[in-house]
Design goal:
This protein has a single domain, classed as Alpha-Beta Plaits (2-Layer Sandwich). The protein is 32% helix and 31% strand. The chain has three helices and four strands, in the order E-H-E-E-H-H-E. A four-stranded antiparallel β-sheet has the order 2-3-1-4. It is globular and about 40 Å long.
Length: 104
C-alpha cells in the first residue's frame, strides 16, 4: 500500500481571489475529516498570488477514490467554477517511501 499525494494548481480571477480562498478553506476543513486523509492544505502562491495550491496527502489510493467520489468535492467544484481564471491542474504522486530531512 502506497501513500498518495495530490497537488492542484487553481488559477483564480483577481476579483474572486478572497471568495475562492474561503471556499478552498472550507473544502480543506471538510476533507481533513475524511478517513484516510493524512493532510489537506490550501496555500497561496507567493510569486503568483492568484494561484491557489491544494496539497493533499492520503494513506492509499482507496482514500483518494473515496475523496474523489465525495459529494462535497462535487459541490466544491461547482462552487469554484465561476471564480476560475482558467482550468485547474491536478497531479497525483504515488509515494513508496518518505524521509524527514532538516528544513531550510
Amino acid at each position: 500500500m502506497n501513500m498518495m499525494v495530490l497537488h492542484s494548481e487553481v488559477p483564480v480571477k483577481p476579483a474572486s481571489r478572497e471568495t475562492a480562498i474561503e471556499i478552498c478553506k472550507e473544502m480543506a476543513a471538510t476533507s481533513r475529516t475524511e478517513p484516510g486523509v493524512i493532510e489537506y492544505r490550501v496555500t497561496v502562491d507567493l510569486e503568483t498570488p492568484n494561484v491557489i495550491r491544494i496539497i493533499e496527502q492520503y494513506e492509499d489510493s482507496e482514500a483518494v477514490e473515496a475523496h474523489e467520489s465525495s459529494p462535497h468535492l462535487e459541490a466544491f467544484q461547482a462552487e469554484m467554477e465561476p471564480h476560475l481564471a482558467e482550468d485547474s491542474t491536478l497531479t497525483q504522486f504515488t509515494v513508496e517511501s518518505t524521509t524527514e530531512l532538516p528544513g531550510p
